[in-house]
Write a structure and sequence with these properties.
The structure holds two protein chains of two kinds.
Chain A: H1 2-50, H2 73-81, H3 84-115, H4 121-131, H5 140-150, H6 158-161, H7 168-179, H8 183-191, H9 196-207, H10 209-225, H11 228-233, H12 242-252, H13 257-277, H14 279-291
Helix pairs in contact in A: 1-13, 2-13, 3-7, 3-10, 3-12, 7-10, 8-9, 10-14, 12-13
Chain B: H1 7-34, E1 37-38, E2 46-47, H2 51-58, H3 60-72, H4 75-90, H5 97-109, H6 112-123, H7 128-136, H8 149-178, H9 181-189, H10 196-205, H11 207-222, H12 226-232, H13 245-255, H14 259-290
Helix pairs in contact in B: 1-14, 2-14, 4-8, 4-11, 5-8, 6-12, 8-11, 8-12, 9-10, 11-14, 13-14
Classes of the chains: A mainly alpha, B mainly alpha.
Chain lengths: 292, 291
């Protein structure tokens, strides 16, 4: 009797425990899926609207999620009336040029701030950090005047590239990365007769490649999604980036919800693909930014 | 051993310093100057002393914009609370958890314009929300969500919060993963249940992330423009109900050609931003002293 009880009890407990775990895991998935619903419902609705044919009502009681008369004509109509391909090309040029040049400039600046001894180094670094909190909209008026009167790049995509050539955030990120590189590596390079430029390019940059990737992605997405400054600068349709073009599309297709939805769908999908492909760098970048 | 000739560091620094000097430092001084002038961008500025500020402080819309920007700061506590909660939820080893994290991150990378237009289609009088509410019988006739001044700020703030969820969640997730497992084991021995251990271990452990999220999201809240512009159009909502400080600055400078007065708005915003940053740094320093 006594023995039986002891032998039996744990067995029952494990079965109950197993059931409990299964229920718990199920509950987690329900919760996770409910949250996912909240984060993607607007896009699902946009996708659905973009595929709706003329006989599918946009609004109905109850709302219709799956089009009965699915069609791609909305996409063709928007593509035909707005230079969406130009928007794309402009956004790609702006984002990639900015990333390449910005990383060159900021990694160059980060090297002395991390590894060289000179007077005023820390003061300079903190001054740079202080400019980080200045919102760019705040200085938009003088920047606008510079663009129109000095650099004369109003309504050209170069207007979006030049002001973004050096970002304090990237200087900060790369300085942290350079600081973690052992000094022996630099000394070894010097013994081999490498100059500072060679040390920066051949020794330091390859070592901090993961940080470069992170900074590149953050900068790319920032430039890709920037709206305030580009909307001030770009007015000719052919010169617009995707964000400015999308805002124009909203005005143009104000009474055409299917068309607007098609435009949004076309512009969101490429950046989503970009994200899915490079997901691990996004995550690492955010983690690293806080630790530093 | 060898003392560097100071010229080398500055050669490396010069491209970055040049760009920052032209596009950040010079504009700050220029905007300070413009704020004391009558200026419309086309004609040269004319010194008028404090006129812009006096006029601005008499302007009801300015006070409205100021109030709206402060109200907008409520997105910060909302984001801190929701994102810690989200991070705790996604911080577990379940098959497919990465897919869920990615789904929560989609609003972050989609860009505020696409997000704004998408939410417009939800809140439109002929939108999804009215459709759902009508079919559930909650309301009898469609509500004009985007044309009612009382809903303007709540809708914009909701969209801002929604866009930030995934971003700040990832920051807290990284923070949670840095907290040593032993601390949770110790809490368990002390008799903490699943949620209590987050109060006693996770929250103190996330202190640096909470500070960072508070700083970043409140600075972003003070700068809000895109959501209001896309959701409520270039007027900033019925009766200026969505006009924030940056929106007001934009409208004065680039719609009404009052660049001088807009610069005064910029100065007020600068003072608020600096005050906020000092406050945040104080809190941050106090946090590191005690721990």
């Amino acid at each position: 009797m006594e023995l039986n009880k002891v032998a039996y009890k744990p067995k029952l407990e494990t079965r109950q425990h197993k059931q409990k775990v299964v229920v718990q895991i199920f509950a987690w998935y329900v919760l996770l899926s409910l949250i996912a619903l909240v984060t993607i419902v607007p896009f699902v609705w946009v996708l659905s609207t973009s595929l709706k044919g003329p006989s599918d009502p946009i609004v109905s009681v109850p709302p219709q999620l799956i089009p009965h008369d699915p069609t791609l004509t909305n996409f063709i109509r928007v593509w035909g009336q707005l230079p969406i391909a130009n928007f794309f090309i402009n956004s790609v040029i702006v984002a990639t040029t900015t990333v390449v040049l910005n990383l060159l400039v900021t990694s160059m600046a980060a090297y002395p701030l991390a590894k060289m001894q000179f007077r005023g180094r820390d003061a300079l670094f903190y001054l740079l950090l202080a400019t980080f909190i200045i919102p760019p909209q705040l200085t938009s008026i003088p920047s606008f005047v510079l663009a129109v009167k000095v650099f004369k790049y109003y309504d050209q995509i170069t207007a979006l590239i030049f002001p973004s050539l050096a970002t304090v955030f990237n200087i900060f990120l790369l300085r942290q990365a350079f600081k973690a590189v052992p000094n022996d590596l630099i000394e070894a390079g010097k013994i081999d007769g490498a100059g500072e430029l060679r040390i920066w390019w051949d020794i330091l940059l390859p070592v901090v490649r993961p940080t470069l990737a992170t900074a590149a992605i953050i900068t790319f997405v920032q430039q890709w999604n920037d709206f305030f400054w580009p909307s001030l600068m770009l007015h000719t349709r052919q010169h617009m980036t995707l964000q400015v073009g999308l805002a124009a599309l909203q005005g143009m297709f104000a009474s055409d919800m299917r068309g607007t939805a098609a435009g949004v769908t076309m512009t969101v999908i490429p950046i989503l693909i970009f994200f899915v492909v490079l997901q691990k760098y996004f995550v690492r970048g955010l983690g690293g930014a806080v630790k530093g | 051993m060898t003392k560097k000739i100071p010229i080398t560091p500055f050669l490396f620094l010069s491209p970055a310093l040049l760009v920052i000097a032209i596009f950040v430092v010079y504009p700050i001084f220029a905007v300070i100057y413009f704020s004391f002038t009558d200026y419309n961008i086309t004609n040269p500025p004319v010194w008028v002393g404090l006129t812009n500020y006096i006029q601005l402080f008499k302007e009801p819309v300015f006070w409205q914009a100021l109030a709206h920007s402060f109200i907008y700061l409520l997105v910060t506590p909302a984001l801190v609370f929701l994102c810690i909660f989200l991070a705790i939820i996604v911080n577990r080893k379940l098959p497919g958890i990465n897919a869920y994290r990615a789904l929560y991150y989609i609003p972050v990378i989609s860009g505020s314009i696409a997000v704004g237009i998408s939410w417009r289609m939800i809140f439109d009088t002929n939108g999804l929300l009215n459709g759902v509410l009508l079919s559930m019988g909650v309301i009898n006739e469609a509500i004009q969500w985007l044309a009612e001044p009382v809903y303007t700020l709540p809708i914009a703030m909701m969209v801002t919060t929604w866009m930030g969820l995934g971003y700040y969640m990832m920051i807290f997730l990284a923070g949670l993963q840095n907290i040593p497992e032993e601390l949770y084991d110790a809490a368990k021995i002390d008799g903490c249940n699943a949620w209590q251990k987050h109060i006693t271990v996770s929250l103190p452990g996330l202190r640096p992330q909470i500070t960072m999220v508070a700083v970043v999201s409140s600075l972003a809240a003070l700068q809000v423009f895109n959501e209001v512009y896309i959701l409520f159009g270039p007027l900033g909502g019925i009766l200026d109900s969505g006009v924030t400080m940056v929106f007001y600055l934009w409208r004065l400078a680039f719609r009404m050609q009052h660049a001088g007065m807009a610069s005064a708005v910029a100065m007020v915003l600068l003072v608020i931003t600096l005050a906020f940053s000092v406050l945040n740094i104080r809190i941050l320093e106090r946090g590191t002293e005690t721990s």
